[in-house]
Amino acid sequence: MNTESTEPMNSELIIPEKLSARIEPFDSYWQAPKDVEKGYTSFFHYYKANFLPYVGSNRQADILIVSAGPGYLVNLLKQQGYSNVLGIDSDPRKVEQAKARGLNCRTAEAFPFLSDKRAAYDVIVCEQELNHLTLEEMLTFLKLCQRAMRPGGTLLVYGLNGANPLVGSENLAHNIDHFNTFTEYSLRQVLEINGFERIRLLPLKLYVFWKNPANYVGLIATGLFHLFFRACYILYGKDAKILTKKIAAVCHKPA
């Protein structure tokens, strides 16, 4: 079935020539540890717990990983049997690290790469926080993603959670390339503006390394903090339920 749209490729869209982030550009991955090789193990568990359940069961799906860095998520999906995964990153050094492990990654800037793609992917996952984009850049990026997705396709994105009373403000202030934070409400807003549907907001879990007993302590402690914060929000008439350091969303292009 032909899923190509007759809508002009870049109608009503202004593709920025240069993104606002200066030190940590959005289309490159900045969360890898200093020992990049160790990250293939630690991030395997992180992505398996937080992202894998929402990618879908179709191992032949065409999947694009934006800001893939050294290919941590690409590596997980490959090991889980997904055969059509492509990772892109604007930093050629990180891409070379991925290629050295036999991962399907290429050097590309996110906006130009997506601008000429139409109905090409079943799933798009963004590995960099949306907070590294200004609001206008973010809305453009999400529209480009939607155009690059097939009808009914899945988008998975995440960002820094401004609702966490301990680290919410610090998340915004500690990096000049962080232009915003999210709550459940505002992350839903930017997705709804771009026409995504079946939006589900998700907490990103930090303590997913079950072989380490210390992780259970961290899980219990943060769980108690979240219960306390939730009670405080209710007292102030607020409805914030997701209070983790980072918040994610899985949503879909209309079928």
What is the topological layout?
Elements lengths: L35 H15 L12 E4 L5 H8 L5 E5 L2 H9 L4 E3 L2 H6 L5 E6 L8 H14 E12 L7 H6 L10 H10 L3 E7 L10 H22 L10 E7 L3
Parallel strand pairs: 1-2, 1-4, 2-3, 4-5
Antiparallel strand pairs: 5-7, 6-7
Helix pairs in contact: 1-2
Please characterize this protein's 3D structure.
The protein has 255 residues and is α/β, with parallel strands linked by helices. The chain has one domain (36-206, 244-252): Rossmann fold (3-Layer(aba) Sandwich), CATH 3.40.50.150. It has helices at 36-50, 72-79, 92-100, 110-115, 135-148, 168-173, 184-193, 214-235, and strands at 63-66, 85-89, 105-107, 121-126, 149-160, 197-203, 246-252. The protein has a seven-stranded mixed beta sheet with strand order 3-2-1-4-5-7-6, sandwiched between helices. Strand 4, helix 5 (135-148) and strand 5 (149-160) form a beta-alpha-beta unit.
Summarize the entry for a quick read:
The chain has 255 residues and is of the alpha/beta class.
Task: Give short descriptive properties of this protein.
alpha/beta, 7-stranded mixed beta sheet, 255 residues, disordered N terminus, Rossmann fold, single chain
CATH architecture: 3-Layer(aba) Sandwich
CATH class: Alpha Beta
The whole-angstrom Rg is 18 Å
Provide the CATH topology. Answer: Rossmann fold
Uncertain segments: 1-10
Give the total of domains.
1
Kindly state the percentage of residues in helix.
25-40%
Approximately what portion of the residues adopt beta-strand conformation?
A: 15-25%
**Mean pLDDT over all positions:** 92
